[in-house]
Amino acid sequence: MSRGRAPWQLKWVTLVLVWGSSFLLMMVALRGFTPWQIVAARILLAALTLLGLLALTRGRLPRDRRVWGHLAVCGFFLGALPFTCFVWAETRIPSALAGMGNATTAIATVIAMAVLLSVPVTRRKAMGIVVGFVGVTLIAHPWDLLGRPDPLGVTAAVVGGAAYGVGWSYNRRFLAGADLGGLSQPAAVILTAVPQILPVGVIAWASNRASQPWPWTPMPGVSGPDLLRAVLALTALGVVNTGLAYMWNFDVVREAGPLVSASMTYLIPAVAVVLGVVVLNERLAAIQLVGFVLVLGAAYLVNRPAAHLSAAAGTRK
Q1: Of 69, 77, 52, whose CA–CA distance to 238 is shortest?
Q2: DSSP string, 27-72
Q3: CA nearest 135: which of 300, 267, 296?
């Protein structure tokens, strides 16, 4: 590790706290802006942040057209799709519940790696997938017609979490040898998400011009402290929780490997749940907490390395 750089362990802890707080920030931002405004602003602010840092460090973006095609796929699964799913989910379910959906990333990663990388699904991983499905079912408890959470909101959160698993697996399959280091790949991934989300955002705004004359106009009736909090939350979500966070995450993957990076899956949803309950006074049913524990247990089962691999890793210095 070069001098003057933060150790990957510090970045790992920071990412857990930053990404876990994203669900709180989205809920606060929704009090002043529409979901499409939040997604578009988040991606734009992240792209500007990373491109600015890339220029300061004299880095460069990839030049291969084939690489940019793969980057666009990563930009969809690691940016446009999950950002949209999570913020839209929070219009229908609490932020704590949306954060639980992030725990499905590890389970989706196993399935995606089996398809894209031909990584075998062991008996333990298969058991983890089944346990995860049971956990998600308990979180949604669809048999309770009166007390269940909104099924579309839960589905959107699960899809958002699964998108990350697909995106990182795709990145490993097609872009492992194309990473230029530094800020090149995270900046390029977020940059490709900009043209994917802006047209949809413009269409959503055009259909609502009567109440919001400009794309950046807050929702009607929002002003004063509420608007200020929404603006600050949206700014932090784009600059810190997306722009800087993607830079740190690529650093962790490069320095510690994808397995260590995936281990964040256990704690990010926990941070989201704690913040939702403590800060936003959200309430979760006991059955949802049981389901959450099962999903986290499933994430551990599918990501825990085999014993012989752990022993081999321990002998390398």
Answers
A1: 52
A2: HHHTTTS-HHHHHHHHHHHHHHHHHHHHHHTT------HHHHHHHH
A3: 296
184-206 helix and 81-89 helix, angle to the nearest 10 degrees: 50
Count of beta carbons in the 10 Å neighbourhood of residue 280? 15
Residue ranges of alpha helices (H) inside the chain are: 8-29, 35-56, 65-75, 81-89, 95-101, 105-116, 123-140, 151-174, 184-206, 224-238, 245-256, 258-262, 268-279, 286-303, 307-315
Q: Find where tokens 């990839």 sit.
A: 62
List all residues 6 or more positions away from 314 whose beta carbon is below 8 Å from its beta carbon. Answer: none
The set of residues, in sequence order, having a beta carbon less than 8 Å from that of 145 and lying 6+ positions away, is: none
Torsional sign, CA 249, 253, 259, 260? negative
pLDDT digits (tens, 9 = 90+) for 204-234: 999 988 888 999 999 999 999 999 999 999 9
User: pLDDT tens digits, residue range 19-48?
Assistant: 999 999 999 999 999 999 999 999 999 999
| Buried/exposed 12-34: b ≥16 CB within 10 Å, e otherwise | bebbbebbbbbbbbbbbbbebbb
- Dihedral Cα 154, 34, 99, 45, nearest 10 deg: 140
In angstroms, the Cα distances linking 244 to 25, 162, 251 are 15, 22, 11
Give the residue carrying structure tokens 């796929």: 73
With CA atoms as reference, report the closest residue to 84 among 38, 46, 48.
38
Q: What is the DSSP-derived secondary structure letter of residue 316?
A: -
Q: How far apart are the first and last CA of the chain?
A: 14
